[in-house]
Amino acid sequence: MLDRYGRNINYLRVSVTDRCNLRCQYCMPADGVKNIGHAGILSLEEIARMVRIGAELGIRKVRLTGGEPLIRKNLNQLVSYINEMDMIDDIALTTNGILFAPLAEKLKAAGLNRVNFSLDSLNEGKYSYITRNGDLHKVVQGIEKALELKLHPIKINVVVIKGFNDDELLDFADLAYNYPLHIRFIEFMPIGDLLFWNPKRMMSVAEIKQVIQKKYPLGEEYALKGNGPARYYSIESGQGSLGFISPMSNHFCAKCNRIRLTAEGKLRGCLHDQSEINLKTFLSQGASDEELKDLFMKAIRSKPNQHHMDTGWGEENHRKMYQIGG
Length: 326
Known about the structure:
Elements: E1 11-15, H1 44-57, E2 61-65, H2 75-83, E3 90-95, H3 100-110, E4 114-118, H4 124-131, H5 136-149, E5 154-160, H6 169-178, E6 181-187, H7 205-212, E7 218-222, E8 231-235, E9 241-245, E10 258-261, E11 266-268, E12 276-278, H8 279-284, H9 289-301, H10 321-324
Helix pairs in contact: 1-2, 1-9, 2-3, 3-5
C-alpha cells in the first residue's frame, strides 16, 4: 500500500489497551486513565479482523502495544489469531516487562516472534521514580526469559532524559556488549504528561553517540530485523548492537511505513497527527470487509508527510501516546 508520498505502508501497530500497570512520569498521569470498559474497546476477534483486512491490503508486520499490552487478558489468543494469517510474517510485542516472564512461553507458543522492552534505568531507585514504583527485578526476569526463549532480536528501548539517566548510557551499552541485546537510545520527546516534558531535558542522538564512543567505537551501520526507525551499529567483539532513534533532531518520517490502530478502534496514520478514522463505529453498523478496506486506504491517503513534534505535543485535549499506542 503506497501513501500519497510513495511510502510503502506494510506495518501495523495495534494498541490492545490504553491502560498500564505503571505510571511513567513522562507518559501516564499519576492517577492513570479513565476505564472505558470492555465495550469501549475492540474485542480480540475484531482486532484480528482488522489485522486480516490490513494484511489483504499489504500489511506484513504487526506489533502489539498498549498502554501495557500484557494486562489485556488472553493476549496469546490474539497472537494465535494473527499467526494463522499467512500474509503476516512478523509478530512483535512492546512491553514494560513487568508481566512478561510468566506469560512468555504461552506467547511464543502462540506465534510471537520477538519482543521489545521499555527500560529507562538500571538503577532500582531511579527506575522506581520514573515509573512511579515499578519493580526493576521483574523486568530483568522478563528480559532473561526472552533470552532463554530466543525471541531474537531482543530490543531494549531507553528514553534518554538529560539529568536523569544520561549517566547510565555506558551501563546500557555494556548490556549490548555482554549479551545478545539490542539497546535503542531514543531522544526524549513530548509524548504524554506535558508537565514533565522540558526541551532542556532532550539529549540529541549526536550527543548520546559522543558519550558512547568514549568506550565503544561504533562499527558499521547495519540492518536489524524490525520495522522501526532506529539506526543500528555493531560493537567490536560485542554480542548485541546499539541503536539510535532521533524523532526530534532528525525525524525519520520520509521512511515511515506504519499506521496505528488504537484500542478503541481508531485508525491513525501518524502518532502526532490528530486525524483518525473510527472503525469501531463502522463495525457497530455492520460494515463489510470491502467498506473497512476503503477506510484503511483513506487513513493511509491522509497520512501526513511528517510530524511536527518539535513544536510540542499540542493542546490538553490532544490524545497522548498511551492512548494511541507506543
